[in-house]
Specification:
Elements lengths: L2 H22 L7 H14 L5 E2 L3 H9 L23 H10 L14 H28 L3 E2 L3 H8 L8 E5 L6 E3 L5 E5 L7 H16 L2 H14 L4 H26 L4 H14 L11 H13 L6 H18 L2 E2 L71 E8 L2 E11 L3 E6 L3 E5 L2 E4 L2 E10 L5 H10 L3 E2 L5 E5 L3 E10 L2 E10 L2 H16 L2 E2 L10 H19 L2 H6 L25 E6 L11 E9 L8 E10 L2 E10 L1
Parallel strand pairs: 1-6, 3-5
Antiparallel strand pairs: 2-3, 4-5, 7-8, 8-9, 9-17, 10-11, 11-12, 12-16, 13-14, 14-15, 15-16, 18-19, 19-20, 20-21
Helix pairs in contact: 1-2, 2-8, 2-9, 2-12, 4-14, 5-8, 7-9, 8-9, 9-11, 10-11
Length: 649
């Protein structure tokens, strides 16, 4: 989640707390509002958020008709719309990187907002650091109070941390500093004979220590430095300090009883009269703040169980409704009943993405195809057969992936890609193909999605194999998930007639990537659809011959038979004869199994005189990843021959 987005939703949460404070501040325990301000600060600081079905943003998404997590893609019939000019992918990148969404680049390509933000952060850090250093110089000159009465008071109130009481010149009002070894600092001219007044002062500062208010204020400084441009954050800082003091006042009266209200109020007035303009940032609030504290003290009543219960309910309500994000539910697929679609013997399911590598890596690039007749592969709608609806208004094959993230609509330009028996929308920017039917994010190769065809296996067979490999079912039928130490995997099982395919995607198990890509990739998955057999999957005679030649080449390659391998090479082949690396890097010739031959034609059109073919195989029975034998084939008089080949791992 980007900085601007955090500031926006944190600001909404601050407004909600302000409303609750205005209506309920005299009816709930005073400690309620520092807790709520703490929740708002956490929301502003964390680069990710927790989702909830109770979130107000989930309700807003339902009201606007935009389903999250790829349930539907709004736009033209079938879920697609012509691509606009909105660079939505930049928004996704900003969510992940934490950069401002509204930043405009300067001449050197650096966002102007980022430069301004950094300057503001630096100025805030310098201001607060200077104030801290100045105060600490003064505090170091403080001397330890050795009064017997103060020592006795301290001995009765130690709670794990060592607390000391000191006095210093130049301090006109009591204060507390320090977290691990807190110090109560008293003015040098305090009247030591007024034991009751002194006890009020010490108890007030002790309540600060017990509730770790120094940690709360330190967190507030970090929030101010990060969100210095948000006026609501500065207002929260002022009210947080005020609410902390009100909560400590209530803590003092809770110990001494309601009969101490007048005496404690007079002590507070006396201390405030001695204060100088020590903190200019909050000077404008000082008069109103002391008046509010006095009124609160005089109206103090013992906290009831009903008030505590109401405060707990309020905190839970605000957290669930306003501090959480919209629930990233998995995409609900139409027509996904797990009924058998035909029996077969293929039980292997790809558990992890294909690996990229090998010196022939450039040969594996898969680019979106632009067709002049896209009506044979429309954008997936919500029909129960998961088939493609015809769409004659596809233009140049540009569409829009639109979805809602944190209550904000995002649009991502995409191209229609038609593969072997399927089609899907691929984002225009930021992605590249690295293997047949597989794509990765250019900025991070751990973010990937890929397609597997398991036609011939039943839905149950595929699901069972996934479960054996660590995947678990989700609330949505046909969608499974697996988590490793560093990656998260998703599989969407699709069926159309006897065809069974899987859309797989993965991303790092890092909160920033989960926030940015779990939703986005589920939207891409929602726009994957199986092509009906009459529109795809028919192979030409040239394609069949090329596939047979590739299988024969694979058999010789697997057996390590160099003489047979030469028969399938062109006469001018000059490269080294490479064979299957049996026994190396987890490869086993006995266990290796071919899953598919990819790269031959779709439809009755001729293949041409030269094609690139990939033999997809599992290198061993225990391998979690697939590999590819890439073969560049040319058509000669005696049939298809390989002019070059290589193993891609």
């Amino acid at each position: 989640m980007g900085l601007m987005q955090r500031s926006l939703y944190g600001g909404i949460l601050i407004l909600v707390i302000l409303m609750a404070r205005a209506l309920l501040r005299n009816k709930l325990p005073r400690r309620t509002f520092p807790i709520l301000w703490g929740i708002a600060m956490v929301r502003l600081l964390l680069p990710f958020s927790f989702s909830s079905i109770f979130s107000v943003y989930s309700f807003l998404q339902k009201e606007t008709g935009t389903f999250i997590a790829g349930n539907a893609v709004q736009g033209m019939p079938g879920g697609a719309a012509p691509a606009g000019e909105l660079p939505a992918w930049d928004g996704i990148q900003n969510f992940v990187s934490g950069e401002g969404m509204a930043a405009m680049p300067d001449e050197k390509g650096i966002p102007v907002f980022f430069i301004v933000w950094c300057i503001g952060v630096l100025l805030c850090v310098l201001f607060f650091a200077t104030a801290y250093i100045r105060c600490m110089r003064k505090f170091r000159r403080a001397v330890l109070v050795e009064s017997a009465w103060v020592c006795q008071w301290l001995s009765s109130r130690r709670r794990g941390r060592f607390i000391s009481v000191r006095r210093a010149r130049g301090i006109v009002a009591p204060l507390t500093y320090g977290i691990i070894r807190p110090v109560i600092l008293l003015p040098e001219r305090i009247v030591w004979e007024e034991r009751r007044e002194l006890e009020y002062v010490l108890q007030h500062e002790y309540v600060h220590i017990c509730h770790y208010d120094a940690v709360m204020k330190l967190m507030m400084l970090v929030v101010l430095c990060m969100h210095w441009f948000n006026p609501l954050v500065w207002l929260m800082a002022a009210l947080l300090n005020r609410d902390i003091e009100l909560a400590c006042d209530a803590g003092v009266l809770r110990r001494f009883g309601e009969q101490a209200r007048a005496g404690y109020a007079m002590t507070l007035i006396g201390m405030e009269e001695k204060k100088s303009v020590l903190m200019p940032l909050y000077n404008g609030f000082s008069k109103n703040a002391i008046e509010e504290r006095i009124k609160s003290i005089m109206k103090y009543k013992k906290v009831t169980y009903a008030a505590v219960s109401a405060a707990a309910l309020l905190v839970v309500f605000i957290v669930l409704v306003f501090a959480t994000s919209a629930q990233n539910a998995e995409a609900a697929e139409g027509g996904m009943n797990p009924t058998e679609s035909g029996m077969g013997n293929q039980e292997d399911v790809l558990m992890d993405p294909p690996k990229e590598g090998g010196e022939n890596e450039s040969q594996t690039s898969v680019k979106p195809e632009e067709t002049e007749e896209p009506d044979t592969a429309g954008i997936p709608g919500e029909n129960t057969d998961n088939q493609m609806e015809n769409d004659t208004n596809t233009g140049n094959g540009e569409y829009v992936l639109s979805y809602t993230a944190e209550g904000m609509e995002v649009e991502e330009p995409a191209n229609l890609y038609t593969g072997d028996g399927y089609c899907l929308l691929i984002p225009v920017e930021g992605w590249r193909g690295y293997a047949p039917d597989a794509w990765m994010l250019e900025a991070n190769e751990m973010v990937q999605f890929w397609i597997n065809d398991y036609s011939g296996s039943t839905w149950e067979q595929v699901e069972k194999q996934l479960q054996e490999n660590g995947y678990t079912r989700t609330d949505v039928d046909g969608i499974m998930r697996k988590e490793d130490t560093d990656r998260i995997y998703h599989v969407n099982i699709r069926r159309s007639g006897e065809q069974v395919m899987c859309f797989n995607y993965t991303y790092p198990a890092d909160p920033e990537y989960i926030e940015g890509f779990e939703l986005f990739l589920s939207v891409v998955a929602a726009n994957f659809a199986i092509l009906p057999k009459e529109n795809g999957g028919t192979q030409s005679e040239d394609g069949k011959l090329a596939e047979q030649a590739a299988f024969a080449f694979w058999e010789a390659y697997l057996a390590g038979d160099s003489d047979t391998l030469k028969q399938y090479l062109t006469a001018d082949y000059t490269g080294e004869l490479e064979v299957f690396p049996d026994g190396q890097d987890g490869h086993s010739a006995q266990e290796a199994e071919v899953l598919a031959v990819k790269g031959t034609d779709i439809g009755e059109q001729a293949v041409g005189n030269k094609i690139d073919v990939w033999v997809e195989f599992r290198p061993s029975a225990t391998a979690d990843t697939l590999e590819y034998l890439w073969i560049s084939m040319v058509k000669e008089a005696e049939g298809w021959k390989a002019e070059s080949y290589g193993l891609e791992m």
